[in-house]
Each structure stands twice: as structure tokens, then as C-alpha cells.
């Protein structure tokens, strides 16, 4: 069985991370009734005897003593991480796996990437190496961050290069939260585009999350819950709609529902690697099957049931007629079946798609970027950082443009009859 | 003589378990419909082939289980142990932590060399337990990474290390609609490599078995377990003992050798398919009776019309009129395409087996011109019934059965290759475009050969 390490960077990253760990604990608690530390749990948690001081505390089998998340928490201001460490999940995190600073990155990618990057490079490397050492067979790093801010965006993407150099064989899965159109951070387009270049070059797989979509989903759920039309549609105690059983404060914070959805996504993604099923899928298979060309590694995700009791069987074939596949991959389906459902549901379905529908999102982002860049608005905040020049901006936008071009070309093949290359003919 | 089974990857291990279970249950089935002595000899023969004796009397399957991640093997071992009737050897498995990621190149070029020694040692130990080795039965899928890539590597190794033993690879053909996106690449790489190093490829198509489950077995929600059990039934009907020349109480000793001799007269033609009749759920068995004439008539038509099961057979297909000159290059698109055979083996089990008339299968029109029916057709029999079927017949055929599926897979893989999609995933681990081209060339050759039969 393999292990994965979650690296949560910045406010967004840490808040989502927190939701994820909460859900993971609940899921394993529901499945693992006997409290034995088994391989499924070990994929995300270490079993530690807290009475032992220093490093010797790891226990590999037997009863669960104290679970520690395989996580590294990074934030350049203390508020969020402190809150986590004072909250109900405080025992789940190893306080040696934190990197914090005081002042924050000021929503500036350059500060996060260049300043804090060089400042904390050694520490970051050390914590990552430690967490890798605790793993029997490390398969994957999950990085959770947002694109619009400074720390998550800048330091989060700095991390990618470090991971690529230090652990070239370990997969880098990045969950990136993209800013919505009405984002209140003015410089978010700059931060996002600068970060995109890094994602293009150093990530194995990116799961882009759109804040606007999450918001819409939550609004719909709220509407249904509040209008009293429960019963057959909304599951009141499902992991998504209710954090009543969650180990969190009573008053819900604004992004809780949205973060929960992302956490569910990550949980579902890794379920086949953790639990048994009749058609297992490991994380390295995701990359193998869904990334036909190295640059095109953006996977759009959808999850059901979120708020309805969707009917989930061996499904996918029914979707086929309504989806347009590229000519050389007409049956581009990768299926995986896992026997353990999420808490509160009997079935669930997660779909990951490598689809050119991400193109408009990237194009919009580039639009917003250009509006600011043409006027050179706020540019001085970035250029005054050592190591930043205008060429960084030019390269970044060119990288994103290149990506958009590739998607455009693939889109262009739709509708045009593609002539199959003639097969090799054999002399009889 | 004994057969050593190598179960590779998730598919191989899941199927392997069902096969041993089916073999064991059949050999201990009380309704053998034959004399006690006959039954005992049958049991002994089955045991010699597939099981070795453990100290406390529980038979141990002659198998080596290999997978690059532990979940499936753990499940398989515990399922076998739970039955209490047979089990796998405690130390017969090889397992790693991280799978092959559906990547043929990873299975072949990374896992293969890295784990060659321990895996071959395990196989060696199993071989040493046999008094006399008939050969290897390797169960694997084509679509994934371990079964396909590592399977191809191991088969090559077996050819080098045990050049006198026979190798039969049981290959699972994936669903046409897709289980793994790169399945076509993995398939062509597997098939081309196995064609060079294996002696025979016994192919089962997931689509076909799925239909059998739906139409004949009336299963509503078909799971892989159902599919594997139907598969195991078909394999059991081929591999369980049958009479040797001497008849009753004497069973054939070299199953693999006999199979190869009957079915693979020429190395260019190695692809075998199985058809079974009758196949139905156990509940219906009690209410059904069959005659050999009826069964064999259906089986023959299944052969010539390339039908996968006994329902929906196309009775319009007839052998081409004899006396006309041979047709030369046959178009793959012909509607009423007649399935020409290179060699056929019919296995009959059950009551009144000696009265069954196999004349229909000896018709020279069924076969290619370069092999007379007396050399192309064989029949094996036993009075001992198989799994409560009063009469059952299996057909193992080296014919144009797999021509269309093979052609389809090569076509799809070629299209994808033309766009260079996913190639970087393979070149990362040492499989270059050259290797792909070599595979395509070999398989186009096989397609052409079967086409012109």
C-alpha cells in the first residue's frame, strides 16, 4: 500500500486541508471498527506513541495509539494555522510539521515565491524529507492551495519545483482554487497567471477548482434545505450538507460548505487506492490514463451525490452519446470500482475529465490579467521584489497562451472529418 | 503431469482464484454420474495437475501469485483459506507496494528486471514440487500495467529458463467501450511480445462473457465476480481430465502438450478461443435435458458463424460451396462471413459420451486447405460429468474467431499512435516509438495471416 503526503499552503489551502482531515478521520472511523492501524489508514496517517519523545514513536501495526496526519502545513501568517492547532484537530497534526511566519505575503505572488521561497527553502526541504522518511512507499504529494493570493499561489508553486527536484518519482497532484470573477483581491489575475506557468511546468496533474461553481452548488443546497423540501432529494446527514457532526465550531464559517466539497473530492479520489474493490485504481493510473500530452494535465472534476440521491451503477457508458470525444480516443474511459462508500451514502461517483472546457476559464483569466497588465497597474509591488522582472510576466502569460493554443487545436478537430492514417500493409 | 499457474495482476489473481475453486469443486462434486472408481481416478488426475498435498491434508494450488500492489493478493489468499477446502501456498506470492499505473512500459521495463529474481525463484520452487512438469498456465489481462507488461516479461523469461516446458497464456480482452484508456496500446504491446515467446494464447473477451452472464445466466447486476466465474467454468471444462487413448479409468497425462499438439500446428497461428455449451444458471439446470445431437449441432453452428454463445446464433451462415476456387483475400466486412478453422478440439463430458456423433466437425469445408480434418480435428471425452451438467461440450478453436477483435484493437491503437497521444508515458520508461512500430508490424502480419486462411 502506498502513502501520500498532503501539503497545505496558505489560508485557503489550510482551511480546505482542515476539512479534508476531518472527513478522512470520520471515514476511517466508520470503516475501521476495531481500531486497528491497517494499511488503509496508513495511506494518510501515522500511528504514533505520543509518550515517546523524539522520532522513535512510530508504530506500524496493532491498535491505534495516536494518529498523526501525513501533512505539512505552511502559511506565512499565523492566524489560520494557530486556529487549527487550537481546534479539535490539534492532536492530529505534528507540530514539527509546520512552517509559519508572521507578516503574510500581502496577496503578492512574488513575495510568496521569491522572498519566502528562498527564506524557507531549507526548512521546507527538511520537513518534506521527514514526512517522506515516515512513509514506507511514498507515491504522491497532494498540494492544496489557491491561485489568487500570495502564499498559496507563490510559495505553493515554489514548492512544486522543490518537489520535482527532490522527489522526481513521486507524483505531484495539485488542487488549485481559481479565483472567481468577483474576487476581492485585485491582483488575483497576476498571481494566478504567474502561478499557472509553474503548474504547467512542474505539476503532474492539476485539479482546478472554480470558486464560483462551488458557491453556486452551496447556494443550491441551501435553497433546498431551507425551503423545507427535504425527503427524497437532500440527504440531511450527508457529509456534504451538514457539518453538524464535524469537529468544528457551531457557527459555520462562510467557506465551510465549499471547502467540504473539495475535501470530498480528494477523499473520493484516493478511495480506490485505500480500500479494496473489484477494479482498483491507483493514483499513478490517473496520470497515465488522463494525461495524453504532458502539458494537458488539467482535470475537471464532478462529484455525485452532492445533494441528490443519484442512481449510480456501472455507469459511464450511458453518458457517451452526449459527450464529444476526440477522434483518436473515442472510448476514452477509465473506470474504477471501490467497494467502500463514503460516510452517509450507499454509492458515490466521481468523474475526472480532461476536457477542453477549461480553455474558456484560462482565457478569461488571461483577459483579466491583460486588463491590469496593459495599464501596468500594481506592477511595482511585484517588480520591487528581487528576482522579479517584467519578463517573468511575459513568460507566464506566454505559457498560458501556449496552453490555450493546444486546447484550441484539439477543439478544431471536432467536426472536421479526420482521415485515419492508413494502416501498415503487409505483403502476403 | 502438472501445470504450474502464474497469476499476474489484479485480473490474473481474481480469475486464478475462481479457476482453482471451480476445479476443486468439480472434482469433489458428488454428481459425477459415473462409477465410484471412475470418479476417484478423475479426482486423482485433477489433483496431480493442479494441486499439491499439504501436510494436514489440505490441497495447495500449484500457483504463484504476483502483483505489484498488495490488496488483491491479500483478498485472494484469504478467500481461498476461508473455503477450508483448498488454499494457496503461504509463501507463493510476490507483492510490491505500488502498482504499475496501467503502464505497460512500467510493468515490462521497470518491474520486470527489478523483480525478476524473486519471481523466478518462486516459480522454480513450485516447479520443483512437481513430479513431472507439463508446462505453465499464465493468467493475465492485456489492458492494465502489471498483468500485461510484467506478464510479457515473465513469459519471455520462462521461455529462456524453461525452454522445454510449454507455456499457455490466458489473456483477458478488455471491454470494447473502455476500462483503461490506454488499453489498446497495452494490448498491442502485450500481444506482439507474447506472440514471440508464448506457445498458445487462450483469449477471453470481457464483452462476450458479459453477454453470457446477461443472456444465459440471467444475472441482473453483473459484477466482475460473475464474469470471472463464467470464465472459470469455461477453463475448467477444458482443463479437467479426459480419457487418453485407453479409455475409461485412464486419463491424459499431458494436458498442455496435447492441447498444443491438437491446436497449434503452425507458429503463425496461436490464438485460441473457447466456446461452451450448455451454459446456464444452476437453477435452470434441473429442468433441462439435452441430447448430444442437439448440443453438437449448436456448437458447430457457433463455430462457423462465430457466435459467442448458444443464443442468437446466425443459422444463415453456411460453409462456402465446395468445388469453387478458394477466395483469396477475404474482406473483413462480409456480413455472412464464414469462420474458417485451422484446428478444432471438442471436449465432451457426461452421459453416453461415446454415442455422440462428431461427423459435423470433420467436414473438410470447415478447415483450411493445408490441413486435412483428420489432422485438424481432435475430440476428447470422459463419462464423468462436469459440474452437474449431465452433458456438456467445450470447443477450443484456432480459427478466425479473434480476427475482428484483433483488427479493431490494432486499428484503434494505430489511430491513437498517429496522434502521438500518451506516448510520452511509455518513452519515459524505455519503450520507444520503434517498439510500437515493431508491434504494429507483427500484429498486422498476424491479421493478414488469419484473414487469408
UniProtKB/TrEMBL annotation, chain B:
Domain Tubulin/FtsZ GTPase span(s) in chain numbering: 47-247
Main localization category: other
Keywords: Cell projection, Cilium biogenesis/degradation, Cytoplasm, Cytoskeleton, GTP-binding, Microtubule, Nucleotide-binding, Nucleus
GO cellular component, one term: centriole
SUPFAM superfamilies: Tubulin C-terminal domain-like, Tubulin nucleotide-binding domain-like
Lineage top rank: taxon: Eukaryota
SMART domains recorded: Tubulin
GO molecular function annotation: GTP binding; structural constituent of cytoskeleton
Pfam family name, one: Tubulin
InterPro entries attached to this UniProt entry: Delta_tubulin, Tub_FtsZ_C, Tubulin, Tubulin/FtsZ_GTPase_sf, Tubulin_CS, Tubulin_FtsZ_GTPase
UniProt GO BP: cell projection organization; microtubule-based process
Similarity-based family: Belongs to the tubulin family.
Function as written in the Swiss-Prot or TrEMBL entry: Acts as a positive regulator of hedgehog signaling and regulates ciliary function.
Annotated protein name in UniProt: Tubulin delta chain
Organism: Suricata suricatta
GN (gene name): TUBD1
